[in-house]
Design a protein that fits this description.
The chain has five helices and 16 strands. By secondary structure, it is mainly β. It has a domain of 255 residues: Porin. Strands 1-2-3-4-5-6-7-8-9-10-11-12-13-14-15-16 form a 16-stranded antiparallel barrel. A hairpin with a 4-residue loop joins strand 12 and strand 13. Helix 1 crosses helix 2. It is globular. The two termini are 25 Å apart.
Amino acid sequence: MIMRLFKVLLLVCSVNLVSNAAMPSVEVDSLTAMERQMAKFLSDSKVSAQLFLGYRYHSAVGESHNEFAIKRGYITFSKNITPYLSGRITPDITVDQEGDGEGDVEMRLKYCFAEFKDPTRQGFFTEPSILIGQVYTPFIEYEEKINRYRVEGAHYLDRIDQVSSADFGITLTSLIGGKMDEDFQRRVNSNHAGKYGSFALGVYNGGGYNALEKNDNKTFQWRLTLRPLPNHIPGLQTSFTGALGKGNTPAAPDWNLYAGFLSYEQEYFVITGQVYQALGDHTGRLVDPMGNPFKNRGQSLFGEVKLFSKKASIFARYDNNETYDTAIPTYSTRYIFGVAYHIQGRTKVVVDYNYLDNNQGNPVPDTGIFEVMLELAF
């Protein structure tokens, strides 16, 4: 079955190349009628990939190690069925870090959804859509379109297990008040480019895309983004996001999250800042021995400056969070510094250093990671 899938994909690539070159198509006799029908179906689909590959050096108290690593590999298949209906499936290639399969390169699903949309609708609600299946959640997907350094590691609220980037459920999205002009979209950012902002909200299992549902609770998550001065300061946006539900354990401890996010994007630099406070987290593991969720809060800052006609960048990030699990809160602070060379589009080489500094009450040791990573996007 896997070999047949590869044959179909090779045929799809051949069909696309041949059609682009305006040459007659060549039928592959070795494929069955069903496989030829599948190839015809896929021939006008979109296939893309995003790979994070490179070298990493880890250091901690009393130990160190280095490795060549595949951090992530996303392969996306998408197709417009009609102007108002499309589908997407994105396998996620990663390395198993624990259990019997530790060290194995695994493929799991990141996204698998149907999208109902109206790309022609203007007015207050512009280009609305509904996603059903294994979908992106409201906030992380938005932040990743502003802070484009997922190759370094997970974004702040995802990294500390407050939210997952994807989950099983339903997401409703829309731009607000039309779209920004084409010049702004070309020079600065064409994602979530609502003139007065955008929003996303949904209902999900709550455990994230890589966890089974362990209780009957469903979580409600949302993001509301406003662009207050689109004609004067078009790059300024403010967002409010959060979640209400239960942690993903059979005991179902409370999980309530409230966060604010401020961003300013310009052609040659990006600045963001966010603060949050929460009770528990989406995993349900941030609890005391009696199962009561801990209060926690924190903040994160990110900045990027683009140089040499935007071919190079320097970036930095500061994360801090506090967990009130004892009389003395547990603190954790992360410092990230890096430089990037942008080859073409999203493809880039990134050199960065990530240092995690914990206070004495934190059981996790201080760690530093130096890495040279290639983000290959095609």
